[in-house]
């Protein structure tokens, strides 16, 4: 009886050891006859492998993060060709305004490159990115078009700023110009519906309205001798008359000043007005404009 009880106790101990060994691999190694130092030597390579895997995992994770950051920071085609922010001073040049000027200046670009380089930019296979000219004249049609468009807008805004200075317009905003055009079209439509006479154009598109308003601004400025630069002395008139040829129908040679004095004054004032607008345009700094993005946008617009 005593022997049987002792045997059962030994079996229970062995069973517990087997269960512990199944849960702890290290225990199995010890029970297999390995010494403690042998166990440590066996675990050392495993620790190195685990550490190496951890390092590789960290490196891969960092590489993935950097790749994602680079992809996020790199502009897409849509971002590159999107219309950038363009300002003349505090006035924002809208995409609609830039496109309107682009359309008008595209014709100028076609004419310029045909005359200078005998290139037909209206051809289906025309390359607007090809370089022409040499030295300071070296350029591409698309770059020339962008520069010409910006200069056109610069002069236009200058004319509106001059008009603003004498109270003819509230500002040089394109949206305000469009609003005035729409108001004029609505007013003329009401007149027609009421059976009233509409003098001049009854409807305007933006190109025609801009020409109309810029001409009105010029005439308003030069017709008032009190506006800056519009006061003319007799000496001013005489000097301008002497510097130019003047003709009158039925008169041989140069017409007398008395016969053309009114025209002399008008042309002198118009010339001074252009100089005033040019000086104002020169104050509009365009050196910081996003030229590369404007060129990319224009290339996409050209198709």
From TrEMBL:
Keyword Transmembrane helix found: yes
Keywords per UniProt: Isomerase, Membrane, Transmembrane, Transmembrane helix
Single GO MF annotation: isomerase activity
Domain of life: Bacteria
Record-annotated membrane-spanning stretches: 46-66
Keyword Isomerase: yes
Protein name: Peptidyl-prolyl cis-trans isomerase
